[in-house]
Specification:
single chain, alpha/beta, Rossmann fold, five-stranded parallel beta sheet, 7 helices, 52% helix, globular
Length: 193
């Protein structure tokens, strides 16, 4: 990872640039990202929601028409576009790290925060959600465990910070991220955005 520092107004270490939340579906990237952006007075963007707004169709429809490969191409283009903006919190899709080119973009253009949530909690959070195409299988709980096993090392390899996203309210999670960011800035005083 390169040095891509961020600071909250309370810590004023450097200029705000981009905060990028990564993690599994159900980790809380969108909910926590909105709260974090609000607390820091930044724009918030969710890659999936931006795609839905632009295409006019839900993610499952994109999967049905274009397959996972087509969706991933659209997702990569959306990420590249969002990474051109400054002062933004971006929530990515859970599979964004599957493409090495996306990982390179993430590492080069922002502070990457991995919201790590164990599979058992992810299952509880997503078990009734029918808008998760990858979980429309015979055994979705097993699928979550399989995806977590594949993706966790990828998330960790690209993340500047790993934050426990298993417990606490949205506000508590945002506060935990702010604290982790301040500690990260203190450990890397020579870094610039």
């Amino acid at each position: 990872m390169g040095c891509r520092l961020f600071s909250s107004p309370q810590h004023n270490k450097t200029q705000v640039t981009r905060l990028i939340l990564i993690g599994m579906m159900g980790a809380g990237k969108t909910t926590v990202g909105r709260e974090l952006a609000k607390r820091l007075n930044l724009r918030f963007a969710d890659c999936d929601h931006e795609l839905i707004e632009r295409t006019g169709v839900p993610v499952p429809v994109i999967f049905d028409i274009e397959g996972e490969a087509g969706f991933r191409r659209r997702e990569s283009r959306m990420l590249a576009e969002l990474l051109t903006e400054q002062d933004i919190v971006i929530a990515t899709g859970g599979g964004i790290v599957l493409d090495p080119a996306n990982c390179a973009l993430l590492s080069a253009h922002g502070t990457v925060i991995y919201l790590n949530v164990p599979p058992s909690v992810l299952w509880e959070r997503t078990r009734h959600d029918r808008n998760r195409p990858l979980l429309q299988v015979e055994n979705p709980r097993e699928r979550i465990e399989e995806l977590y096993g594949q993706r966790d090392p990828l998330y960790r390899s690209v993340a500047d910070l790993v934050v426990d996203g298993e417990r606490g309210s949205c506000a508590a999670m945002a506060a935990r991220i702010e604290k982790a960011l301040a500690e990260y800035a203190d450990r890397n005083p020579l870094c610039t955005p």
